[in-house]
Each structure stands twice: as C-alpha cells, then as structure tokens.
Amino acid sequence: MSQELEIKRQLLPVQKKLIDETAPYIAIISGSRAGKTIGGALKALQFVTQYPGIYGIVTAPTYKMLQDATVPAYEKVFTRDVMFALNKTEMVADTLGGGKLFFRATTDPYKIRGITAGFFHMDEGADSPALAFKILQARLSQPGMPLQGWITTTPKGFNWVYHEFAAQKRANYAVLTACTADNCYLPDDYVDKLRESYTDEQFLLQELEGQFIEVGGHCPFDMKALNQMYQEAKDREELERELGFIYIYQKRQIAKRYVIGADAATGIGHDDSAFVVALVSPAGIEEVCSGRGKMSEAEFADILDKKSKEYNNAMVVVENAPVGKATLQTLEKLGSNIYKNKDKLGWPTVSTTKPLMVADLGDAVKDRSIVVHNLDIIEQFMSYIRDDKGKYHATGGAYDDYVSAFMLLIQGMKAIPVASAISITYGKTWRSA
Asked: What domain count does the chain have?
C-alpha cells in the first residue's frame, strides 16, 4: 500500500529498530518528542496489515492522555481503511482483516483483564503502574499471532521500567534508546530552546536525553535490594481485592501479631490515604494487606478499624499531624488499638524524627528484613528521594503515601515486644525515638 511505503521513507532510526525488533518485550526509552509514540503506532500498523484478525491493546496512564496523545497518534498513522471509526464509548476500533484495537487507561489495571491479544503497546509506560505491564504480558495468548509487547516512554526515575528493562540484560527483553535531538522533524531551534529553559541538569538528562536518573535528589534506599524485591513481587498474585483498591495477600493467622501503618489524607487533591498491614515476627516484616485511595479521614478510619479487628486487634499507627488528627479521633471513638507516644495519640513526625524513620526503613530494605507483595509500594520506594535541601519526598508527579505508611508501621513495631526479637535476629538494635 502506497501510504505504508511513504511512512517507511520517513521513519526515524529508533522507529525502524522498533518495527524490526523481534524480542517478546521491547522498550523505547527516549527523551520527549523523540518519535516514540508514533513509532509504537507504526509497529501496530505493521502487525494489523501482516496478521489479519489480530487483537491489540493500546494503553496510556489516563483516559485524558489516551484522548489527547495516544489515540491521535494512531489516527495519524492508520488510515480509515485500516482502522475504522473508534467507538469512543467502548474505546474499541475495528481494523482491517477483522482485528480490533482496544484503547485502555491503566488507572485500574484489572480492567485490562479478559482481553486476549496478539500484541500490546504501553504509551508513556513509566507513568503506568507495574501491575499493568504484568497483566498485559498475561494477555498475549492469541493463537497464530506474534505475541509481542512494547513500551514507549520517557524515563521516570528508577521505577519499574528501569528494573524490567535496564537493570540487567534479559533474554526476552530489548531496549532501544533515543534523544529528543534525534527527531529531525522537530523545528531547528526546538532542542536549543528547551536546553536553555531546563536549568535542572537532572531533569534535562531525563526529558531530552532519555536517561534514567533521580530528578531532584537521590533515593535513600538500596537500589539493588529494591530490584530484588521487585523481581520477587511481580510474580505474586493477591488472594482477593476489597472495594476495588484493597489488596489482600494473606489471611489472618491465629495468635500472630500484626501492625498497621497508615498515612491519612483529606480526600481532596493529589494525595491518597494509604495503609499497610504487616505480620511482624522474629523472621521480619511481611506485608499481608494494603490499599490506597481518595476518601475522607472518617472513611479511612473506618477501614483501619475494620482491618485492625480483622488482623488480631492490630496496632494502628497514624501520624499526629493536622491531616491525621480527624483519623485518630475517629479511631478513638471506635475503640481501636491506636499507637501512642508518651500518652498522646499517633506518631509525632517532626524534623528530628523524619530522618530516623527514613533510616529505619532504609535498613530494613537493605537487610531484606521486609517482604513486600504490592508492586505499587516498591515503586514508591524507588521514587522516594532526599533533595539538595535535605527534605524527603516523592520525585515530581509520584506518590509517597505508601512510603510514609511503611515508615509509620516500623515505628509502631518498635513499640511492641516482638521488636526486640527482630533486632537480635538481624544483628542490630532498632533505633528508638
């Protein structure tokens, strides 16, 4: 077809490499505007024209990104005689030869389940959860099809994309790289203007050079240990989900001791409320249940109270801060087992205690004395940084609610007798506030 021949003459080098690559899983890691999304659509076009009846899943981190960037890229590459009109209610398009393209946001990865596909394309994959990639891998089972999945993305720190594709060489994985300047179709002064605008050297290396880098600071946790934790956790499945956002990995065990760390939020704005339930014993700390979402402090307290009672009257550790007081007050009314510091409800997070909390979690990660099943928690560990002003927080656009919840959990664990047994097992004494 003439259009396909015309497209081939205009391919950027990284786009041609993607089209020719045969590894089961491929990632284009590049700077912004390097042609990665169009490249992903071009490879999809190749499959649709070569494999009649193929089903493909195309994802973006949000529906807005699907509508504003990913779908327009596909409409630019595919003519109407190859990809027929998109059903914007179902977000499905019929394709030449009886195939289909399913456009999905990864805000709830479980909604991707149920589709049998011959390929998938994750656009801006670093902004999607690792769970989405894991579920998409399992969707590749359409008989007689190439069964390939590719990610097109600008890096976002050392998150799951780094640990899947760049941390080590793997037989079924291929990594393709490109810089923004490699796109010869951009205006002549486009890159120069951005270089002048991006005064943060780390941000420039990420956004223009496509390098994995910690923008704004450095992660205080051992990256090698986090990679091991990630590789182990990605093969685990939760036993069940509650309310759509609570993941249960292990049911209550009689006579076992549990602690809950909880980071409260107002339910408005960027931050979510998050909690982690962990089994604590001389063997270490194992996450058995976790969840995060937007809700009022009263709603959050109700969930925490139910989980505390479900897991043997587990101690609930909440930060005693302006956001958190309402959660603590509601928990007190419910008669929950609440952590107290010098007879005051909640953990006092102040300038002197925050470094202690980070150090304790850092020791637990490095020593591998914690077991984490929820990939979202590990991703947050990877995106947590200490900036040049000495402040701890998530790197730009990421979340740190699970990090705070886990740090609170460890402080609560230190207040119960089992903590001394754990400290002996690992040859060190847990710090005390």
From this structure: 2
Pair type for strands 173-178 and 25-30:
parallel
Which residues fall within 8 angstroms of residue 298, CB to CB, at 6 or more apart?
A: 326, 327, 330
> Are 267 and 149 members of one domain?
no
Q: Which residues of 266-285 are buried (b: 16+ CB within 10 A; e: fewer)?
A: ebeeebbbbbbbbbbbeebb
Same domain (yes/no): 56, 110: yes
| Token pair recorded at residue 144 | 């007689």
Element (H, E) at 279: strand 273-281
Domain hosting 24: range is 2-215
pTM: 0.75
Of the candidates 133, 128, 132, the residue with the CA atom closest to the CA atom of residue 154: 128
Q: What is d(CA 433, CA 431) in angstroms, rounded to the nearest whole number? A: 7
Task: For residue 431, tell me if it sits in a domain.
Answer: no
Domain at 331, CATH number: 3.30.420.240
pLDDT in tens, 60-100: 999 999 999 999 999 999 988 899 989 989 999 999 999 99
